[in-house]
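hey so i finally got around to running the thing on that chain from the lab meeting. sorry it took forever, my laptop kept dying and i had to restart like 3 times. anyway pasting the input first so we r on the same page abt which one it is
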Amino acid sequence: MQPNSIQRRLIATVVLSQSLLTAGLVLTGVLYTYWRLLSTLDTSMQARALSLAALVRYNDNATGDVYFDDTMVPPSIDPARPDVFAVWANRSGLLARSDIWPSNVELSPGGDQHWNAKWGHVPYHVLRMSNVPILDRVEGPLSKGPQTLSIIYASPTVRLRQQVRAAGIIIAVASLVLLVLMAKFALRGVGKGLAPLQTLAEQAALVSTQDWELRLPEEVEQIAEIEPVARSMKETLARLQRSFVQQRDFLANAAHELKTPVAVLKSTLQSLLQRPRSSDEYRTGLNQSLEDIERLERLLQWMLRLARAEQWAHGALRRNLELIDLNANCEEAIERVRSLARSRNTQIVLSRNGPLLLRGDPEDLRLVWTNLLENAVRYSPEGSRVEVDLAQDKRDLARLTFKDYGVGIPSEELPHIFERFYRGDPSRTRATGGFGLGLAIAKALVEAYGGTISAESTPGKGTCMTVQLPLDTG
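ok and heres what got predicted. didnt touch it at all, straight out
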């Protein structure tokens, strides 16, 4: 068992708590036994004190004088050690005292009480009783009235202490045996209880980039403490798998996108070098090469923009943002796509409701709106219109919707439209200039500002993109 393990801590905690409980039970048992035995001793001493009171007799006269009849003194409580007693009458004084009454002890009568004393190295428990009536009866009235007694009775507590000690030893031994059995049971129970964690760790160690599935036995997965951990691990692995697949696809798609213009550029230059050509042929070849270089440059810019947006979304970049109005920012984006809209005879209708202030980079947000508007215009039929609506909801969020009435997006493609390099529509070819990065960049930028972007689409009826961004309320 490792020094810093949950199993060791649990067992140590259980054993410590049970040890404290055992000590408490032993102490409680000893104290209770002592109290019960002492209470029994008090009762026996009180009975013997009353027996001594019954041995007090009145003289055969009317003066009320009394004497003590020592012929029937009760035996000691502890047969091995004698009891000690003394009897006083309120007028006649000391009537009797045991032969072994300590010579150095002088006790005067007083109120009822109990106490412990030690005489001749022997511990005693002492009882004093006051105003005890004399049980003897006389003929005729007493001239001075009846007397009362004060009795001190002491009994050795050696046997009582031996009984308490023996009871304590028995209770302690029984408790220790139970503690050892409990420790063994706890060791076994904790080990068995933590076995599912070991299973979870073993199965988690089998997860790899080739197999992302966490396989757990059903009985382990149903444990109340394991179920949320297993569920969280599976969700985390699913996200890691998606990120891994996206990263792998991104690299493959980026390599493919970079390879194509480079191959075309290389082919064009090689063809120019194969034989002497006229200046017009060289000029045409160089212009084609420049177009391929420009496309390559645009692709690199889009990839860098996406990387910067994702770094910022994950807190890797710090930026000083200015306060901007989303209405004006969106109008600037509309002006950027105005020429594209005119070429397709498409009308862009803007609806707004009051100022919408947000701290951000104007160029970032214009890029988002431009991407959404270009897609809406490009995939709308000629002569159609695109509706842009800006409003504020009750949660201090800006809500921007971009609705077109174009071909729409099939339901099976809708979950993937924000993925990098995703082209669901075969018409997104090199002729349109699309790389499949526009919506991925838009999503990354929106999430970097703490917002969300979503899409709803009905094939043949159009698409509605909705962006929600937190406003600056300060």
